[in-house]
Design brief:
This protein has about 120 residues and is α+β, with helices and mostly antiparallel strands. The chain has 3 helices and 4 strands. A 4-stranded antiparallel sheet has the order 1-2-3-4. The structure holds zinc ion.
C-alpha cells in the first residue's frame, strides 16, 4: 500500500534517469523528494509528477552546521546515482542492467530518506 506507492515513484525516478534526465541536489519544496532536471531544463518532481519552480531564498547557501553529516551522505548518494546511471547507459548485458537498475532504485530511495531527514 504505502510501500507500493513509494516503489512506484522510485521506479519513475529511475526511468527518468534512464531517459537522460539529471538528478539534482535540490529537493521538492512540497514532498522533499529529489528533483530532476529534464532535457528541456525543467525541474521535475517524480513523486508529484509535476514541474517544480524553485524560488531561491538563501537557504541553499547558508546551511546550518548541524546537518553536515547528512549533507555528506547526500553528496555521496548523489555521486553514486550518477555513477550507476553512467554504467546503465554503457552496459549491454541484461543481467547487469537488472542489477544496476535495482541498485539505482535503492540509492534513490535512500537519497529521498536523507532529503526528508534534512527537511525535518
Ligand atoms: Zn514533490
Amino acid at each position: 500500500m504505502e510501500k507500493k506507492e513509494n516503489d512506484k515513484h522510485i521506479k519513475r525516478m529511475a526511468d527518468l534517469l534512464l531517459k537522460g534526465a539529471t538528478l539534482t541536489d535540490l529537493a521538492c519544496p512540497v514532498c522533499g523528494s529529489p528533483l530532476f532536471r529534464l532535457k528541456d531544463k525543467t525541474l521535475w518532481c517524480a513523486k508529484d509528477e509535476k514541474k517544480v519552480v524553485i524560488v531561491k531564498d538563501g537557504e541553499e547557501t547558508s546551511k546550518p552546521a548541524g546537518t553536515s553529516g547528512l549533507e555528506t551522505l547526500e553528496a555521496t548518494l548523489l555521486a553514486k546515482v550518477q555513477d550507476v546511471q553512467g554504467k546503465i547507459q554503457r552496459t549491454e548485458n541484461v543481467d547487469e542492467l537488472k542489477k544496476l537498475t535495482s541498485a539505482l532504485s535503492e540509492l534513490l530511495d535512500s537519497l529521498e530518506k536523507v532529503k526528508r531527514m534534512k527537511k525535518g
